[in-house]
Design brief:
nucleotide-binding; Rossmann fold; about 750 residues; single chain; monosaccharide binding; about 15% strand; 24 helices; 4-stranded mixed sheet; magnesium; 7-stranded mixed sheet; globular; 23 strands; alpha/beta
Length: about 750
């Protein structure tokens, strides 16, 4: 890892690092091993040490929770000059480093690419000046560079998410939630300035009334439009208005729009009591979220693989995230596109700026506009279709955000929206009511399920449910839930031959903490549960650091699905995670005990072991606790902790709010398209493609018929037969110093930035 300032000063290298950026092992040329600088004043080229030796890497491995940048980060003026880069090249050659991973924004990555281009010339000049031997010019002839984007702004083109962004969103949402709580007792708008992408996504995540973005300035006359909207919301008994202002917000004439200007406008025009909160560097601080820890680990591995596969002809690349898939893109293509965004804004080509930001940003902006601004009823063409929304299964944080999104998009499309309360049980009993635009106001940040949800399946009540669908003239059904929702959708589909009422478009949006629904890499609620597990593990490890020589056994939820245990272990730096998908026996337990016994001889005298609740019928949490306690006598003591239903509770994380909002909006768009196909023809929907699960799979959001997903499902254990996250399991073991091989067959290949991703 390299930080330019220290590289030039003979004590380090670069990267504007953010929360979640882990330690990366770079391989040097043969005979020089792997190198990394020590923190604060250490010499460039301090050899990496493994956790077992108690080296500095051990500290960073055992403390994945601190935010900021452990190895340091700074903007380096010296590196901007050729003299500075000459010193940096000399330092790298002296340590045998020919592979460089740079973590930072577009400026940092541009500097890295320039350094790479100048490399051969720098070495020749160093040899000419006698600072290095002539044979070193040939020996270190090529410098390979791979970038990882670390920036809370998420303003780098070519990636859907940069390392640190999710953690910053956590800070913003926490502040906005706190403001909304305290402001319920007083009337008036509240302004929260934030960065660009952060402003947009936090506006989606908290249901803000108005958002100001530099890429999409408000139209002329926005002052009057905003005041009218605030007045309308107040007339609907809404006691609080949230206005989010991006840093650098402008109008169509490129004149700045500040939070103070907005406050003055609201106070002058409406007389509302108004407060301004400037978040500032609060957004950079705090512990990294579970998403950022895992993203940093995934991108770090991908960067190492890219370096090891690089040849002298390989251009500098950046490791990016496209959906849920890691890709490699030419570094300068991404940098150029990022700079084109600013150029477009300077030239007032704002539509081009939004397009260049990428499909994720454009999609977020379009979704926000649809959910935040309601047209007058007389301007919405009515379809005369009734669409019902139901929650099924266990509660999951983000369900309410998904319901809100579905209701508002459905109303905007001209449908009459119906809410079904208490799952299929309530459906059979006729607990169905029309739900309006304002009825779902403020739902985004609320946990649990406001509609109510149960695990009851529809099989026993098919006749009653069909009657209710006929009585309420339900033309389409959106099911939000977990594996029970998936089973329920299968039962409704199978009953179409007997009950024509079920011959309507039906789509399911996955929502379960277990993340065990076939057809989707992620489920609403899983990220919130993962953050709960990670936060708890952080606290437990902090407790253990004081007592020393203590091992904690932590049981997670998930049924037979080991997603929470495995990914929680990766995010929290666990020593082991027991899951159903990877069978284990007494020999594995013995190996883990021996590993922890050796670990207690190092400076890190604590252990963390996670266990999925259904990973083994016989090796229960109590059994493992008793085994560890007995075998560890005299070396370490043991404690256990069953997290239980606290993993289902709490306010939804920013990821779950936004994922639920966007995927539910997409489901409603699909329903609208299906209903338009049948309009005026009295068409009955009997084909498989009219009963689907909507999910994200690698790069794409796709609809998959449940009939096709049946063969991909292990119904006995309620899990998909193939699960993407199992490929990350060796990474957790490697980081915990177990011998494991990492499958690189699915690693990203160098691609060009395609128009569809722009």
């Amino acid at each position: 890892l390299c930080r330019y300032e220290r590289c030039c000063a003979r004590c380090g290298a670069h990267g504007h690092l953010r929360g979640g950026q882990g330690v990366l092992h770079l391989r040097g040329v043969p005979g020089h091993g792997g190198w990394r600088l020590k923190h604060r004043g250490g010499r460039l080229g301090e050899r990496l040490q493994h956790p077992a030796s108690g080296g500095y890497l051990a500290e960073s491995r055992e403390h994945p929770c601190p935010g900021g940048t452990i190895i340091g980060s700074a903007r380096c003026q010296a590196f901007r000059t050729r003299e500075g880069r000459l010193k940096a090249a000399c330092n790298l050659v002296q340590c045998g480093i020919t592979n460089l991973c740079v973590i930072g924004g577009d400026g940092s990555l541009t500097g890295a690419n320039l350094f790479r281009k100048e490399w051969s010339g720098l070495l020749e000049e160093l040899a000419k000046n006698g600072q290095i031997e002539k044979e070193a010019v040939q020996r270190y002839a090529y410098l390979n560079v791979v970038g990882m984007v670390g920036s809370i702004d998420n303003d780098f083109c070519g990636t859907d998410m940069t390392i640190g962004t999710d953690s910053a969103l956590h800070r913003i949402i926490e502040v906005v939630d706190a403001i909304m709580t305290t402001a319920q007792s007083r009337l008036g708008p509240h302004g929260c300035p934030a960065w660009m992408y952060l402003a947009l996504v936090s506006a989606l995540g908290c249901g803000a009334d108005w958002v100001f973005l530099p890429e999409s300035p408000p139209e002329e006359g926005w002052e009057e439009q905003m005041c009218v909207k605030l007045s309308e919301n107040r007339a609907r008994k809404k006691r609080l208005n949230i206005i989010i202002v991006a840093e650098g917000a402008i109008d169509t004439q490129n004149k700045p729009i500040t939070s103070e200007k907005i406050k003055e406008l609201v106070v002058t025009q409406l007389g509302y009591d108004t407060r301004v909160t400037i978040l500032g560097h609060v957004q950079r601080g705090g512990t990294p979220s579970a998403f950022d820890r895992i993203l940093g680990s995934r991108m770090g591995v991908e960067a190492v693989i890219a370096l090891l596969e690089a040849t002298p002809d390989t251009p500098a690349c950046v490791v990016s995230l496209n959906g849920n898939h890691a890709v490699r893109l030419p570094l300068m293509e991404c940098v150029q596109m990022t700079q084109d965004v600013q150029k477009a804004m300077d030239e007032r080509r704002f539509q081009d700026a939004v397009r260049l930001r990428g499909r994720s940003f454009a999609g977020n902006l379009n979704t926000y506009k649809r959910l935040a601004i309601k047209l007058p009823d007389d301007q919405i063409p009515k379809t005369n279709y009734n669409v019902a929304v139901i929650n099924v299964g266990a509660p999951a944080a983000g369900m309410n955000a998904a319901v809100r999104s579905a209701v508002r998009v459905g109303i905007a499309d001209g449908h009459r929206m119906l809410a079904i309360y208490d799952g299929f049980d309530g459906f059979a009993k006729g607990q169905i009511k029309e739900i309006g635009w304002t009825d779902v106001g403020g739902w985004t940040g609320q946990g649990g399920s406001i509609l109510g949800t149960k695990r009851v399946l529809p099989g026993k009540y098919l006749e009653e449910i069909a009657t209710q669908m006929r009585m309420h003239s339900i033309n389409a059904l959106l099911i939000i839930g977990g594996f029970e929702a998936y089973l329920g959708l299968l039962e409704l589909s199978a009953a179409r031959e007997k009950h024509e009422e079920f011959c309507v478009p039906m789509v399911m949006v996955p929502a379960t903490v277990s993340n065990n629904v076939p057809g989707s890499d992620f489920s609403i609620g899983a990220d919130t549960a993962l953050n709960t597990i990670t936060d708890t593990c952080d606290r437990i490890k902090q407790s253990a650091s004081g007592t020393k020589r203590r091992v904690f056994i932590i049981e997670t939820m998930g049924g037979y699905c080991g997603y929470l245990a495995n990914m929680g272990g990766l995010a929290a730096g666990a020593d082991a995670a027991y899951i159903f998908e990877e069978p284990f026996d007494i020999r594995d337990l013995q190996s883990n005990v021996e590993h922890l016994t050796e670990k207690m001889k190092t400076t890190i005298q604590r252990g963390l072991v996670l266990r999925n609740e259904s990973c083994s019928e016989n090796y229960t949490t109590d059994f493992i606790y008793q085994l560890y306690s007995e075998e560890g006598k005299g070396v370490f003591d043991c404690r256990k902790n069953v997290l239980g239903h606290m993993q289902q509770g709490g306010a939804p994380s920013p990821f779950d709010r936004n994922f639920g909002t966007k995927i539910s909006a997409r489901a409603m768009e699909w329903i609208t398209a299906k209903l338009k196909e049948a309009r005026g023809r009295g068409k009955k929907f009997t084909t498989d493609d009219s009963v689907c699960v909507l999910g994200i799979s690698k790069r794409n959001v796709i609809f998959q018929p449940v009939a096709e997903l049946k063969k991909e499902t292990d119904f006995e254990h309620r899990i998909p037969k193939e699960q993407w996250w199992l490929k990350l399991r060796p990474l957790m073991k490697i980081l915990a110093k177990y011998k494991a091989s990492y499958d690189v067959s699915d690693s990203g290949q160098l691609e060009h930035v395609q128009p569809w991703s722009v």
